[in-house]
Amino acid sequence: MPTKEQVTEKLTAVIDPELRRSIVELGMVRSIDIRDDGRVEVVVSLTTPGCPIRSHFQQAVVKNVSQLDGVSGVEVGFDVLSEGEKSGLQQKLGRAKLPEGALAQVKNVICVASGKGGVGKSTMTANLAAALVAEGYKAGALDCDVYGYSIPRMLGINRKPDVSPERKIIPPASPSGATVMSIGFFVEENAAVVWRGPMLHKAIQQFLEDVAWDELDYLLLDLPPGTGDVSMTLAQLLPQAKILIVTTPQPAAQSVASRAAEMANKVDLEVMGVIENMSAFTGPDGERVSIFGEGGGQLLADELDVPLLAKVPLSGELREHADDGSPLVIDEPDAPASQMIREAARGIIAQSPVELPVMQAAAGSPPAGNGSGNGSGVSGTELPMAQ
Ligand SMILES: Nc1ncnc2c1ncn2[C@@H]1O[C@H](COP(=O)(O)OP(=O)(O)OP(=O)(O)O)[C@@H](O)[C@H]1O
Ligand SMILES: [Mg+2]
Fold first, then answer.
1. Is residue 198 domain-shared with residue 341, that is, in the same domain?
2. How many structural domains does the chain have?
3. Is the CB of 279 under 6 A from ligand 1?
4. Residues 62-114: pLDDT tens digits?
5. Ligand 2 centroid vs 120 CA: distance in angstroms?
6. Smallest Cα–Cα separation from 53: which of 268, 265, 369, 320?
7. Which residue range is the domain that position 69 belongs to?
8. Is residue 45 domain-shared with residue 142, that is, in the same domain?
């Protein structure tokens, strides 16, 4: 059985790429737990909840700790440094400010993607953002489709955003409570947007940095259809993002949709699940109508080994409410399409890494054993699984 000291020793090889020191030295190892069966649980404290290098830490901790004899598995949990701990770290490093990636205050970044156009990405993005707000979370939707932006309209926003005195763009709150940002706010209506390669990359980067992103639990990005430049650019700028794939039910759509998964794979982003849209609905006489066939979503989810989060039926009212800028999930939460979208939202919530509250060492609690000497520890708390 490995000892805490041995695990700590291994963790000295896990380097924060931005601060260039080991997580042990930085005091970012919150706790180490070694179970009788050889499983090791490590909680790492991040500087910001949306830390883009979270997956880097997760992989590096697993890789290094697994090398020890007697380790049967490694689980990595995350929490966030308290303000006091952060200022301690800043002092230690002699820096005024710790690095923050784009969207540092956003806990979960989810890109809604598809292999082809018109499958309902924008409709799902808008309704999911509203559904997440209805579940009690702070959520936003960002329209990244420079060629056919539609999110502001679907969420009932028809004005340009305000600009703060610091010249940051403030995302307006929609009537559903979800905040909305769109690259379309900055493009003349109906203007032909022909952005390519480096210009597009720069525009998106600038755009992400210029927005005053609030603290959000979820930000959903509506990607353009397919796997082009915009998607690749975003993947580079947002390495913490996960991908949600929308597909239609015909089994033939599976191969097209799996292109979106291949893209995710290429840029090292995790696919979190599949939503089948335009699925069978039940007609007024109780008859089940499957205009676009059956089973495509499940086939794709099985192929990718990810959950099928929902099958959202074809629904005239879902389209009408999107066209009117008032999401169906809010107006008619019990409609069949709304119920499925709410189920998908709960699936997303269930998959999000749980953040432990930041705990300071209570008197008499055992030391964290992280060798950093900061004395803070967590005990008896269920570990969240890193996603
Ligand atoms: N489940 C559904 N039932 C009925 N209509 C739907 C459903 N989902 C989407 N639609 C309608 O289908 C059309 C295409 O949907 P949407 O714009 O959301 O797709 P998209 O994937 O974002 O398209 P694009 O690739 O052009 O961005 C819209 O008119 C929308 O209202
Ligand atoms: Mg769209």
1. yes
2. 2
3. no
4. 999 999 999 999 999 988 888 889 888 888 887 766 666 667 788 889 999 99
5. 7
6. 268
7. 1-82+358-387
8. no
Same domain membership, residue 328 and residue 207: yes
119 and 38, same domain (yes or no): no
CA of 211 from ligand 1 middle (Å) equals 27
For residue 1, CA distances in Å to 70, 74, 382 come to: 5, 13, 22
Mutate to test the pocket of ligand 1, among 122, 153, 220 (most ligand atoms within 8 A of CB): 122
Is the pTM above the cut of 0.90?
no
Beta bridge partners of 211: 169
Same domain for 142 and 124: yes
- Characterize 352-387 residue by residue with b for buried, 16 or more Cβ atoms within 10 angstroms of its Cβ, and e for exposed: bbeebebbeeeeeeeebbbbbebebbbeeeebbebe
Q: Which atom of ligand 1 is nearest to the CA of 224?
A: 27
Question: Is 242's C-beta closer than 6 angstroms to any atom of ligand 1?
Answer: no
Q: Does the Cβ of 277 fall within 6 Å of ligand 1?
A: yes
Does any domain span residue 60?
Answer: yes
Residues 373/34, Cβ–Cβ less than 8 Å: no
Residue 285 inside a domain? The answer is: yes
Report yes or no on 99 lying in a domain: no
CB of 118 closer than 6 A to ligand 1? yes
> Is position 215 within any domain?
yes
Q: Looking up tokens 């963790």, which residue turns up?
A: 11
Beta bridge partners of 32: 42
Q: Are the CB atoms for 280 and 262 separated by under 8 Å?
A: no
